[in-house]
């Protein structure tokens, strides 16, 4: 089974085990409707029970099918973090690497949880006709799931000290564009720190560096722009904040395993 369209809800009915292939960096959201099934990925098995949710990050190599014969019915769609970057506040972007880590392979939500019940309720309200309202409702579901994950990261023991709280509040006031485009020196000035001190504190409280986070956000923006077949790669690099095409190619290939042109061809 192969997912082709981002943020487009599909209904699948299967009676046997089928391979699951999700090209590109995206999360697959699976909502079992009827029948008992399971998702397998290597040696790991994830049950698919009606009313539950499974979020899968692995791009390929998995399989889905009924657990004990019979037939299963499930809704599914996929969405990439690139679609959601404009939705995040500065403080949420700082926590994003920790949230992404929580979806390293797959994450299941039991049918009995309030989150699963709320998402299935929202799922029932998705317009049947593809369009902006259709995609918007699916993003509401994604936002509901991510909100709980952000909350879980924030509630981790010793996640923030008073200094961490100060940084979090300061970054919450930044727009996405400011976080991506302000120099590290200007960000440090906003907080009243030196560049070196900010770098050390940022790594300590958010688990990544300012530069690494900014590069990740720029690459996610580049992936989004590359979906336009008419966009020139040099223009994509510039709009994503890379002033040197060679650096853009190097960072992109290191992150996604292929050049921008190869990635666009594979995900056309």
Which features does this protein show?
single chain; 268 residues; alpha+beta; Jelly Rolls; five-stranded antiparallel sheet; four-stranded antiparallel sheet; 11 helices; globular
Explain what this protein looks like in three dimensions:
It is a single chain. The chain is an alpha+beta fold and 268 residues long. The protein has two domains: 10-154, Sandwich (Jelly Rolls); 162-211. It has helices at residues 90-102, 114-124, 132-154, 162-172, 176-181, 184-191, 195-206, 210-226, 233-239, 245-256, 260-266; strands at 10-14, 18-20, 27-34, 37-41, 44-48, 53-56, 62-66, 72-79, 106-109. The chain has a five-stranded antiparallel sheet. A four-stranded antiparallel sheet has the order 2-7-4-5, with no helix packed on it. Helix 8 (210-226) packs antiparallel against helix 9. The chain is globular and about 60 Å long.
SSE layout:
Blueprint: E1 10-14, E2 18-20, E3 27-34, E4 37-41, E5 44-48, E6 53-56, E7 62-66, E8 72-79, H1 90-102, E9 106-109, H2 114-124, H3 132-154, H4 162-172, H5 176-181, H6 184-191, H7 195-206, H8 210-226, H9 233-239, H10 245-256, H11 260-266
Antiparallel strand pairs: 1-8, 2-7, 3-6, 3-8, 4-5, 4-7, 6-9
Helix pairs in contact: 1-3, 1-4, 2-3, 6-7, 8-9
What's a concise summary of this model?
The chain has 268 residues and is of the alpha+beta class.
């Amino acid at each position: 089974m192969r997912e082709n369209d981002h943020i487009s809800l599909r209904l699948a009915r299967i009676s046997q085990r089928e391979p699951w292939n999700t090209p590109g960096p995206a999360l697959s959201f699976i909502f079992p409707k009827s029948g008992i099934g399971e998702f397998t990925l290597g040696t790991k098995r994830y049950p698919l029970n009606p009313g539950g949710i499974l979020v899968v990050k692995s791009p390929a190599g998995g399989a889905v099918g009924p657990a004990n014969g019979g037939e299963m019915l499930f809704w599914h769609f996929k969405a990439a973090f690139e679609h959601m970057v404009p939705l995040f506040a500065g403080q949420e972007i700082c926590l994003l690497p920790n949230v992404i880590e929580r979806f390293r392979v797959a994450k299941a939500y039991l049918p009995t949880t309030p989150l699963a019940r709320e998402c299935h309720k929202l799922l029932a309200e998705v317009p049947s006709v593809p369009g902006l309202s259709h995609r918007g409702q699916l993003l509401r579901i994604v936002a509901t799931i991510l909100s709980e994950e952000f909350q879980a990261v924030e509630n981790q023991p010793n996640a923030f000290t008073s200094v961490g709280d100060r940084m979090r509040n300061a970054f919450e006031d930044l727009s996405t564009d400011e976080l991506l485009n302000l120099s590290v020196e200007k960000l440090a000035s906003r907080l009243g720190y030196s560049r070196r001190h900010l770098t050390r504190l940022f790594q300590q409280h958010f688990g990544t560096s300012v530069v690494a986070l900014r590069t990740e956000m720029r690459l996610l923006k580049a992936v989004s722009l590359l979906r336009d077949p008419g966009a020139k790669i040099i223009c994509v690099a510039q709009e994503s904040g890379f002033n040197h095409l060679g650096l853009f190619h190097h960072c992109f290939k290191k992150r996604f395993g292929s050049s921008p042109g190869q990635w666009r061809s594979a995900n056309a």
